Amino acid sequence: METINQYQADIKNGKLVNEKGSFFRAAPFEVRSEEAVYTIEYIKDHEKEVVYSVKEDGQRIGEYEHPFFVPNEGPEKVIAQFSKSSSLFHAFVVLNITKHKDYRRYFESNSDGLKYTITQKKFL
Amino acid sequence: MLRFYEIADTIDQEVNQFEEDIKDFVAGTINPIKFKAIRVAHGVYEQRQEHTYMIRIRCAAGGITPDQLRKCSELGEQYGSGEVHFTTRREVQLHNVLIQDIATVIRELLTVDLSTRGGGGNTIRNILTSPNSGVDKEDIFDVDPYAIELTSRMVKEPDSWNLPRKFKIAFSNNSKDTAYTQATCLGFVATKKDGQNGFEVYCAGGMGAKPMVGHLLMDFVPAEKAYQVTKALKVMFDKHGNRRSKFSNRLKFLWKKLQREEFVSLFLEEYNKISSDKSLDLKIVDLDNTPKIDASVKVETPKDDKFDIWKDRYCLAQKQDGLYCIKIPLQLGDLVTNDGLSLTKLVELFGENTIRCDRAQNIRLRNIPEAYLGNIYNCVSSFERSLVEHASFIGNMINCTGAQTCKLGICLPRGLSVAIRDKLVSSNLDLDRLADFRLNMSGCPNTCGLHHIADLGFFGKVARKEGQMYPAYYVLAGARVAAGETKYAEKLNEIASHHIPNFVHDFLQAYLINADEYENYQEYLEDEGKDVIKSLCEKYSNVPLFRDDESFYIDFGATRKLSLDEMGAAECSAGMFDMIDVDRKVIRRALKEIDAGAETAEESLYSIAFSSTRMLLVTRGLDVKRDEQAFQSFDKHFVETDLISKEFRSVVQLGELVAKGDLDKSVLIGKKSEIIGLSSAVNELYTSMDDSLRFKKEAVVPEAKKTDANLIEKDFRGVACPMNFVKTKLVLEMIESGQNLQILLDDGEPIENVPNSIKLEGHKILEQTKKPDGHWQVLIQKK
Ligand code: HEM
Ligand code: SF4
B398-553, what's its fold? Predict the structure, then answer.
């Protein structure tokens, strides 16, 4: 198994502090914080539509579709529901996976204290 | 085994290289624009959803054998969207393919001799023919074998993959011109002269946003000379086509620039070199249009009483006695996996030459003996998804994929097509009287949905009410297609998307009431049809306010209000890189010539010097009309600013003197190492350039004229694409984040492309208004 990372980044206090390599949006990656480990894959769902599929600690928690790749409810609701998921959706914003305005705006004022790492293994 | 083309021996090597390029792209070492150029030439397009691809598969003469189609269905199931899509260019596509599967799919296709090479990009595209050629009672002769043999030759010639622009070829089996040769770069229409088979040759036609009808190039050429004609035109296009403007580089623009006399003489110059070389003549192998029935096939009785009406609508007797061709109307061109598998299982019992793609995104079968029509009926009427229960008018409607998958799309013609179908099938219109009516729709001006050759056509546009955007279409009508008499549909009016189903219904109703009084539809249109269209557009001109009816602002088949946010044209930026690439290629070629000890070393050295100085001017928003300007501008913007070392100044100045004719090119011979050094320095600078056109090395400029005015205004009227974009980008580089820039742009391509490309760079378009004299004012906020 190839273990070289294609991309690695640390987020401290909501800011990207350490970035190495080149992130590829359609390859699997991992978001790891003290509370949870998310694995994200760009795959096809059962209707053969391409989605971001997210697992939290090995359990599938959601499939997010084009064009925004975030849940339809706004960030306040989603993050209140699963407080751990801040790091996940923050990573979606940082990595430019979602262009949803509400999520971008939400994290402009709600990212203090966020600390996690993003890792993407070499893909192809 | 029947195959509709041969594949070049180099294909494995090319696919291996492509796979390496895919890996490099994923690893971030090839930029997306370069990767785009590579992948489209392999028939791989990115859908609107990033990193999701469609793969276009060549089907010369629209032909595909049952085993090949089965393979496509299997691959569509395993790696695609669960469908094989039939296109308006008589080929098939797989959709929703992920990047890691692209190379596998291409290799799997090769196992059944299908290739994706040249599916897109600046290549020889799929060669088309009349859909019933070879079985049509009105055949002059079968043109399919010509398309097949020509394809096999063209795919083996490396220059077919690197033309100034895409190059489309078509063959019609008679003067009705059902392959639309006059809407094609190069078209052959079957004819006979003194008993000899030959072609009338048309060229330089094309649709798209600037449609042009093709011109007669030769009134007769012996049929086997179609290769020499194609080769000559290809070579001529390669030499003289415009590679520096992405927007005016198709063959039609070359005709427009040169005009008939010069165009024809340049063509003949090439043609005469090869026309009498018999070894180049096409070697035609006739296709076998006879049935090959497997003895195990039992004749089936139709499963219900709708067989007769189906037969009337969809089956046509061939010129071969007792044989039939059959049309299978698909929903929006999609053949779902199970239908594909059951169809191929049945059809292969009747032989290999049994399937053709058709232009209206349907399937055609051929060589089916009359006794077995029931078997076919039982199969297709059990399809999970098809339109067989409807009049053929419904399946004949053409639409492109539109904004659903296409990055250039404005509207969603797939959704519109479904809405029109729902409206018409629930009406009491006698659609069987409109069996040959062409209702064609495209999601934008590009004409992938063939609206220029429609009886009634639509193409998508953005309309606004009180600043809110809603989906709308232009309405066109009245195309005429026949060899030498083709005329494109005329743009008559515009209408909101949501009114179109009713509009179409009312228009067809009016036509059907009066149709019998006219010789044909054309006459009806001229006499009253156009007025009917205008008055119906008036009747349906009402647009509710956004606050009163939001659904009107959401296109058919969309879930959100019309928005151009994710429209990913990036055409401008790609155009700029294309311009740079022209010079890079010239330099590479000339360096090779010198390495090989070229006799004309001075010419090669001049090319290197000139292209090295011109190459990066576009990144500063500069273009040049005369050679010496390249040297002058380079000196000012690159040498003076220390982006390029001053050690090269003398050689740049020498180049300028040669360009002006003050010195002979031979003086360059003694400067070989400096000239090559200059080209390396330029190339190094280019490699260090980022997406914002900044180089790693800072330019030393006289104190930057940063302006703190809140609004900066620039007039880019009269500045062609993509230079207007580059200039806009450069001004944005100079100003502060949050500051506004107002630019003036021309109508047409500039306004269609620049704001989208600027948006893609992350800036905001605050306002876009059309001024009374036709130009546009665009307000941009820097990111
Ligand atoms: C990713 C999706 C697509 C894009 C971005 C695209 C882009 C374009 C553009 C820019 C043109 C105008 C060309 C010109 O004026 O020079 C064009 C024309 C055309 N396209 Fe597409 N296209 C797409 C998909 C398709 C598909 C799936 C088909 C069917 C195979 C198709 C068939 C055509 C046809 C028939 C024309 C008319 C043109 C002519 O020959 O002048 N396109 N397309
Ligand atoms: S006509 Fe426009 S919207 Fe439709 S596929 Fe072509 S480029 Fe896309």
Answer: Sulfite Reductase Hemoprotein; domain 1 (3.30.413)
